Fold this protein.
Amino acid sequence: MSRGPQLDRRAFLASVAAAGGSLVLGFEIPFGPRSSHASSRSREITAWIVIEPDDAVIIRVAKSEMGQGSFTALPMLVAEELECDWSKVKAEFAPPHENRRRNRVWGNMSTGASRSISASQNDLRRAGATAREMLIAAAAARWNVPGTECAAANSVITHLPSGRTITFGRVAAAAAEVAPPTQVKLKDSKDWKLIGSRQRRFDVADKITGKPIYAIDVRLPNMLYAAIVQCPVFKGTLKSLDERKLAAMKGIHRVVKHQDAVAVVADNWWRAKKAAQALSVTWDFGDNAGVSSAAIREALHAGLSAADARAGRNDGDVERALAHAIKRVEADYEVPFLAHATMEPQNCTAQVTADVVEVWAPTQDGETALAIAADAAGVPPSKVVVHKMMLGCGFGRRGIFQDFVRQAVLIAKEVGQPVKLVWTREEDTRHDFYRPVAAARMTAGLDAGGTLIAWKIRTAGQSIIAAVSPRVMRFGVDRNFLQGLLEDMPYDVPNYLVDFAMRNTHVPVGVWRSVNHSQNAFFKESFIDEMAHAAGAEPYLFRRKLLEKKPRELAVLDAAANRAGWDAPLPPGLFRGIAIHSSQSSICAQVVEAAVAIDGEVRVHRVVSAIDAGHVVNPLTVEMQTESAIVYGLTAALYGEISIKDGQVEQSNFDDYPMLRMAEMPRVETVIVTSGGFWGGVGETPVPPVAPALCNAIFSATGKRIRSLPLKNHDLRNA
Amino acid sequence: MARLTVNGQSRDVDVDSDMPLLWVLRDTLGLMGTKYGCGIAQCGACTVHIDGTPVRACALRVSAAAGKDITTIEGLGSLGALHPVQKAWLELDVPQCGYCQSGMIMAVAALLREKPKPSDAEIDAAITNICRCGTYQRIRAAIHAAAVQRVSGVRLP
């Protein structure tokens, strides 16, 4: 077979269009030729914007779209200052390889930590303002009038004294030649028209008509398909392989051995998968084949009283204050490993030729995908092209590690043809980078008036930082593990100590939507309820008192309580719980209304979620992300548990790692508290409060305090 | 070899008889709208219609679909002529990541054919697909919106 040095992109586009059976839309192929060809560069008005003669405005998006709405919200920031007609705006992904070639003109492409807006808003608004000034300058030159006499609005430039007008499209080519102004003035937030308005998403039309927009949908000429089987025990290796059964199977092209996995390449994925499962593989499980969840739990429990903990925050003298406390409250909490379970399983398509390595990946960080592909192929980064596709969920699974990219490139290199690697759901569940296991020992002291005077939090668990970036450790402590319990712990406690006994396991861990806030909010907000109960106080008012010096937190807590009607009676059988937690620079408070049936079944009826994320770009996105985060948090609270036996993950698919479904969906009400003045995140912030708010409601309903998750492991019958 | 009728077109496919319909649609026929999520009929991302009934294509052998009328998301409606369910999805901005939505829309379209104005309980019972982004609230609202359009006899463009 002979191929050109690079895939004929036109042929590829045609094949995708034919596969979809309908026309290709402007943003259907998120890596359209426009973004990667020099011809368009000449029409750029800043690297972020291309304006066509017909007035179409193309705005580049550097971040990935995994459902969070950045593909729409980020262009809004540009368009606000550009003064273009929003109905003429289209979005497209800026290609990672172009970003590398152009000295990272689009900045950091890593998409996570709910930072897409906060980290890029300044650059994007500046790009919009810069382009607007260039367009005005081009129009003014054409009319031979001073630019100061011209104004732009709705994609039209007007010469104010004469009333002459011209559209952006007609001066775009000239504007592209104008030297960008060195300084631009950004609008005051009170003058924003687009930012803060509800805008429809750009990606809906493709997503309701089944367009091939995901990496798993990529089809290339001569493409083969790969399925992979990875060593069931983490850190184990491949020992030997018996391929004899494959001889009788049709369509099998090759078996590719990795250090810890075997891939089978076939002419369709079903055949590859069947063959991969038919292989007789002998693994070297290494030292971890005996590890179980019970042993891990024991290690964490020992950590709760061990001497090797490092402090993250230490105010006052907690031991002394505890000794003087009239009432002591103590409790241990714990949470398990959790998988991401992105709807689109891990996959990647790769093509390796003598001249170029091309990958199509569901990536939260196209630049990391590029670096991994270069490393795997053994080529300089300049030889790699990364096509960012729409992601079928992200949740932190596809940013740092991107093991699927490495595997696909290694396989494609060995096969010498384009290969699409798709993991089975079982591989996906059993080879994740999990939310870490964690435990906490809480000790609090109250004075005679029931006021909290001392709070000691000992945590134990697995550090993500230790695996990912050990140099980030500060004074030997992984402060990330203590997210939400450090300076960001909002309650006013004169004597406060939080420390961490690191207990790492062989199970790989990684960032998982809201990361360590997910467990720390459960520990903190459940225990605050315990303190309130011990003090004979009402949980909402107990929190209010401890937040007296925190007006922003107080406003959000009140907003949730007021919308929920905290003091209003509920129908029989329904009970409320409340929680507040700050993360990603935003504050979220939630009130959960739940019932516990006689058979022990927990049913969540309503969740009121109030958030202060500072400036809100698209309120629609905030509502959607709130609903999403609540489902994500509830799924984990009710069902989420990855357990280890014989060094392996016990769960494998949605039958034993269940997800919340339609019948269990509560009514979600989002309250946006707009304080303005800062840029906070949204996508993760509503995840952490929901588990403790629910467990606090269960306490109200049953008197049973839930100190470990998931709830499916608790017997709440006749409670 | 099997003869399939997909979106009104007759297609002869030379595939293993135990190959699930999902992979025939995707890898053999290039219809990528029907998604792989679990392979064990748990999540519903692969939902298609077979003779009008919603079926999870990942767990159906192609041989069992031969001779039957198969409709995929590509055959349900197109941008110029959206199905009422797609129209409601567009109006209410239902999708987030969107990966499960083909299957959701197919499941809902079948439900509305059976029950033109479903109650919440009927929706809960019929729509068991998984959406990991948690779009259920918007899906429920969109189902009711689509049902009203259908009941009032409005023909959508």
